[in-house]
Design goal:
Length: 252
């Protein structure tokens, strides 16, 4: 029987990840759409237009604008995702086979979100991997202005969104992409259970329980830090190699 879930901070701690699988190639199969059943429709007058009924919500699987350099999801989905933040959905979107454009930080960068949603206080490390959710073209009013550059709204592995300038990211994958902290307890229960079906993740999780002893902040032992990093590595490897992920309960 598995012990009860503790509150465990999972922190990459600057450990570089050397993971097999890498980002999805165009020849890999796309992850099937994840459908979330809506709550019961609000009652309405008889004969009300069908369009007023809520629609099932799904995780997008195709580029909103095929043919563009950056493959991004539907803008409404991206906006809602950034407003709410979801580590569970982030793992699904980063999974092997998804078409979204991956980008990598060219230097350490402060985290901020121009869209107004939640954003982490943690800086992004050089070589951190993100997904491009929206491309912001420079507003020049039709006038060519030297030095103007586009920017991006991007998704981190922890479910937070950040806004980055084009000079802060590169599309070429580094040899050792990094991850931010992952808060294990913020993952939905079904996702945690699915991840722990992988023996490597379960072993790493048990090591965190043993070494960290439920500590979620402040000073922790070196052994706890190392265990945290190994759990991050195991989760990332599982996701990038197409391991089973649970269906998110909520989709924006």
């Amino acid at each position: 029987m598995r012990p009860p879930e503790p509150h465990v901070w999972v922190q990459a701690l600057g450990v570089c990840l050397t993971l097999a699988g890498g980002c999805a190639s165009s020849g890999e199969p796309a992850v099937p759409a994840t459908t979330v059943s809506p709550s019961a429709a609000a009652s309405g007058a008889a004969g009300a237009p069908a369009a007023s009924a809520p629609r099932p919500k799904t995780v997008p699987t195709a580029c909103a604008e095929p043919g563009k350099k950056e493959c991004t999801p539907d803008p409404a989905f991206a906006k809602a995702l950034c407003e709410g933040g979801s580590p569970t959905l982030a793992l699904v979107l980063f999974a092997k086979g998804t078409p979204w454009t991956r980008a990598y930080l060219t230097r350490k960068t402060a985290a901020w979100n121009a869209s107004g949603g939640a954003s982490s206080n943690d800086d992004l490390a050089q070589d951190e991997e993100v997904l491009i959710l929206r491309v912001r073209e420079p507003s020049t009013g039709g006038i060519v202005v030297s030095g103007q550059e586009k920017s991006y709204d991007a998704l981190r592995w922890d479910g937070d969104c950040v806004t980055l300038s084009s000079g802060e990211v590169a599309l070429q994958r580094p040899g050792r992409p990094r991850l931010p902290r992952l808060l294990w307890t913020k993952l939905e229960n079904e996702m945690r259970d699915a991840l722990r079906e992988n023996p490597a993740i379960d072993e790493a999780y048990r090591a965190v329980r043993k070494e960290c002893k439920g500590v979620t902040m402040g000073s922790v032992s070196k052994a706890c830090e190392v265990a945290d990093g190994r759990l991050v590595d195991a989760v990332a490897k599982h996701v990038r190699e197409g391991g089973r992920l649970a269906t998110p309960r909520e989709v924006p």
